[in-house]
Task: inverse folding
C-alpha cells in the first residue's frame, strides 16, 4: 500500500475524490493568485513540492487560482507568492472577500507564504504610498515599511523544533515585520535582514511565511519536506541521486556567502 | 560654448579610456562632461531630432534597427549602440556626433522620465515591460506609472508603443500622440491584470480588455503577423529580415513606424532593415575548432522565452549559460519563470558561474543535461553530435564567451 494514505485526512476529501476509492487521493497544491502574486520565480515552490511528492509516489494535483476565481476550500497545501504593493493590496482585499483561504486554513490546510504573500497574512502591512492595509489575519504578525530595502542573500538558523536545515535564499523587500504572541519566528538570521529584528519568517500551526522570496524551497528542500509532512504525514527518504544537485547547490550558496 | 568645452573634455577622457583598454569609452566621457556641465545633455540635445528607445527587452536591437531605417535621411545619426543607456551614455553618444541632426538613443527604463525632460524627444519608443533583474531594477507597475506621468507632461512628443502589452499601452495612453503597433506579446506573466484598476484582464488572442474599468487594447495602425507587416494604408509586405526570431520581427515593425514619423517610406526603410544581420555580437556565427557556434543573448524570463523559440532545431546541441554578477542581477530566481520543457530530448549543455542553479531548474523540468566548465568543453561535446552549437547566455556569461571566442562582432 502507498505509505501516504494514512497521512491524508479523509475528512477533507471532496465528493469528487471519494469516488476514487482504490487509488490514493492526490495531494492538492493550490497556487493562490499567480496573476497578482508571482513576481520572481514563485512557480519554483510549486514545482519543488510537486517533484518531491511525486518522487515518493504521491500523486499531485496543481490548481492555479486566478484573482477572478474562487479559492477552492479543499486544497492540502496553499501557496502565496511575492508581488508589488498594488497587486499585494488587491490580493488581500479579494482573499478577505472570498473567504476560501480562511476556511481551508481553519480546517488545518497547510499555507506557505513568501515575501508579499507573507506580509499579507498578518493583521496589516504597508501598501502603496505608505498607507497601512488590512491583512488576512491568518498569522499573528504585523508589517510596515522599513527605512531601506533589504536586497541580498540570507542565511538563517531554523527553529530547532521544526527539524529543518539552515535556510539559504535571497530577499528583496522593504518590509519590517513584528511577531505577536501567537506566532513563532521561523529562524534567526546570521546574514540578511528578514523580519528586521534578527528573526526571519514566522509560523503557527501549519501556516508558515518567509521573506526569502521567489523559489524559496529550491535551496531549502528540508522546508519543502516539512510542508509535505504537515499535509501528508511521515515521508520516506528520497533516493540519494534525486537530492544530489539540490544538495550541491545548497552547499555552494552557503559556502559563497560565508567566504564573501 | 560651455557644452562644447565639456563635450571636448569628455571626448578626450573617452579616448584615454579606450587607449588604456578600460572599456569602449562610452560612459567615462559622459560622466566627466556632466561633472563640468550638469545640463550638458539638454544642451547637446537641443536642436536635434531625438528618438528614445526603451523597454525591458530589445532596446539595443531596436535602436540599431531604427538607426538603419533612418539611413535614407542621409547624414550622420548619433547613437549609443554599445548599451550605455543612462544619462552619461546618452551624453557621450551626442557629444561624439556633434553634427548629427538625428539621434537614436537606447534608454534605461528607469531613466525615461529624466531623459524625456532633458532631451525633449521627437519620438519615444515603448517596446515591452516585464520582470527583469529585480534586485536592482524598479518594479514594473511602478515603472509604467512613471512613464505615464512623464509622457503626459511631454505634449510635443510622439510615442510609438506596442498595443499588445497592456502595461505599455497604459503607460503610453497618457501621451498626446501615439502610433499604436500590434507588435505581439509572447510573455504574458506580468500582464494578467489591468494596469489601471487591477482586475483580471479578459484575453482573446492578442486582444485584451478590462471588464471593470473598460480599459482595452487601442486600435492599431501597424501590425505584425508572422513574417508580414501591415502598414497604416492596409498594405502587407513580407519582412524577410536577416535577424532571426519573432521578437526581432516585432522590433522591426516598431522601427518602420518610427521611420514613418521621420517621413522615410516603408520600402526604403525595409531595405535597410534587411541588411542588419548582427547586433554587437548577438546572433553572430563563429567557427571554433570546426564547430559553428551561434551566440544568443537573453537576460530575463521574457527574453529567454523568445530566445528558446529562435534556437536551431535538434540535433543542434544547446549550451545554456547563466551568471549572477551585478549586471545580470545577483538573484537567479527568474530561472523558475522560464519553461524549459521544450528542451526535453535535446543535447543540452549547462555552463556559467551559476550552472548549478540552472541544473536544478532543468532537473525539475525533466530535461537531461551535462555540466561544462567552458566554451571549449561545450564545443567538444557538441561536435560529437552536430557541426553546430547554439549558445544562449545571460549578460556577463555572453560577454565571457564573446571574449573567449575573440571579441565577436
Result:
Amino acid at each position: 500500500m502507498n505509505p501516504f494514505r494514512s497521512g491524508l485526512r479523509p475528512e477533507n476529501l471532496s465528493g469528487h475524490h471519494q469516488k476514487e476509492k482504490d487509488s490514493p487521493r492526490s495531494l492538492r497544491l493550490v497556487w493562490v493568485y499567480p496573476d497578482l502574486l508571482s513576481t520572481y520565480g514563485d512557480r519554483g515552490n510549486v514545482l519543488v513540492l510537486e517533484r518531491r511528492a511525486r518522487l515518493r509516489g504521491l500523486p499531485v494535483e496543481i490548481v492555479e487560482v486566478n484573482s477572478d476565481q474562487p479559492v477552492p476550500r479543499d486544497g492540502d497545501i496553499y501557496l502565496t507568492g511575492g508581488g508589488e504593493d498594488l497587486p499585494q493590496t488587491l490580493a488581500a482585499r479579494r482573499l478577505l472577500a472570498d473567504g476560501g483561504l480562511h476556511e481551508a486554513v481553519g480546517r488545518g490546510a497547510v499555507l506557505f507564504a513568501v515575501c508579499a504573500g507573507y506580509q499579507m497574512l498578518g493583521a496589516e502591512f504597508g501598501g502603496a504610498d505608505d498607507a497601512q492595509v488590512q491583512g488576512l489575519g491568518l498569522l499573528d504578525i504585523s508589517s510596515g515599511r522599513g527605512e531601506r530595502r533589504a536586497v541580498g542573500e540570507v542565511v538563517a538558523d531554523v527553529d530547532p523544533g521544526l527539524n529543518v536545515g539552515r535556510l539559504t535564499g535571497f530577499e528583496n523587500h522593504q518590509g519590517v515585520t513584528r511577531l505577536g504572541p501567537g506566532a513563532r519566528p521561523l529562524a534567526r538570521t546570521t546574514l540578511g535582514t528578514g523580519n528586521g529584528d534578527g528573526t526571519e519568517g514566522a509560523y503557527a500551526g501549519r501556516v508558515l511565511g518567509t521573506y526569502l522570496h521567489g523559489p524559496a524551497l529550491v535551496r531549502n528542500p528540508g522546508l519543502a519536506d516539512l510542508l509535505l509532512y504537515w499535509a501528508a504525514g511521515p515521508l520516506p527518504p528520497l533516493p540519494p541521486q534525486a537530492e544530489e544537485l539540490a544538495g550541491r547547490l545548497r552547499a555552494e550558496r552557503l559556502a559563497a556567502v560565508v567566504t564573501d | 560654448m560651455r557644452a562644447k568645452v565639456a563635450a571636448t573634455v569628455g571626448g578626450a577622457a573617452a579616448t584615454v579610456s579606450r587607449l588604456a583598454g578600460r572599456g569602449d569609452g562610452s560612459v567615462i566621457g559622459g560622466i566627466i562632461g556632466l561633472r563640468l556641465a550638469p545640463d550638458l545633455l539638454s544642451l547637446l540635445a537641443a536642436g536635434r531630432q531625438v528618438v528614445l528607445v526603451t523597454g525591458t527587452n530589445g532596446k539595443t536591437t531596436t535602436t540599431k534597427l531604427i538607426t538603419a531605417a533612418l539611413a535614407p535621411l542621409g547624414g550622420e545619426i548619433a547613437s549609443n549602440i554599445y548599451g550605455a543607456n543612462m544619462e552619461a551614455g546618452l551624453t557621450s553618444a551626442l557629444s561624439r556626433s556633434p553634427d548629427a541632426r538625428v539621434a537614436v538613443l537606447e534608454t534605461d527604463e528607469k531613466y525615461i522620465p529624466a531623459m524625456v525632460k532633458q532631451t525633449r524627444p521627437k519620438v519615444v519608443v515603448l517596446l515591452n515591460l516585464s520582470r527583469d533583474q529585480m534586485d536592482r531594477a524598479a518594479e514594473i507597475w511602478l515603472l509604467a506609472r512613471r512613464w505615464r506621468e512623464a509622457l503626459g507632461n511631454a505634449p510635443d512628443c510622439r510615442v510609438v508603443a506596442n498595443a499588445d502589452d497592456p502595461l505599455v499601452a497604459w503607460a503610453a495612453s497618457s501621451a498626446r500622440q501615439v502610433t499604436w503597433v500590434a507588435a505581439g506579446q509572447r510573455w504574458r506573466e506580468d500582464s494578467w491584470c489591468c494596469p489601471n484598476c487591477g482586475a483580471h484582464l479578459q484575453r482573446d488572442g492578442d486582444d485584451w480588455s478590462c471588464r471593470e474599468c473598460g480599459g482595452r487594447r487601442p486600435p492599431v495602425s501597424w501590425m505584425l503577423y508572422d513574417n508580414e507587416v501591415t502598414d497604416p494604408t492596409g498594405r502587407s509586405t513580407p519582412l524577410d529580415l536577416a535577424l532571426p526570431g519573432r521578437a526581432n520581427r516585432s522590433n522591426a515593425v516598431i522601427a518602420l513606424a518610427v521611420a514613418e514619423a521621420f517621413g522615410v517610406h516603408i520600402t526604403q526603410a525595409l531595405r535597410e532593415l534587411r541588411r542588419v544581420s548582427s547586433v554587437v555580437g548577438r546572433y553572430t556565427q563563429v567557427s571554433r575548432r570546426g564547430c559553428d557556434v551561434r551566440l544568443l543573448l537573453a537576460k530575463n524570463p521574457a527574453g529567454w522565452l523568445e530566445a528558446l523559440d529562435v534556437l536551431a532545431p535538434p540535433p543542434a546541441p544547446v549550451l545554456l549559460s547563466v551568471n549572477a554578477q551585478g549586471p545580470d542581477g545577483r538573484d537567479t530566481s527568474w530561472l523558475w519563470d522560464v519553461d524549459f520543457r521544450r528542451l526535453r530530448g535535446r543535447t543540452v549543455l549547462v555552463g556559467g558561474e551559476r550552472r548549478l542553479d540552472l541544473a536544478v531548474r532543468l532537473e525539475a523540468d525533466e530535461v537531461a543535461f551535462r555540466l561544462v566548465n567552458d566554451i571549449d568543453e561545450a564545443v567538444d561535446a557538441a561536435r560529437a553530435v552536430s557541426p553546430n552549437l547554439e549558445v544562449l547566455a545571460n549578460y556577463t556569461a555572453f560577454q565571457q564567451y564573446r571574449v573567449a571566442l575573440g571579441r565577436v562582432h
The helical segments of chain A are 15-18, 43-54, 85-98, 100-106, 116-120, 221-232, 240-259. Residues 5-259 of chain A form a domain with the Rossmann fold fold (CATH 3.40.50.880).
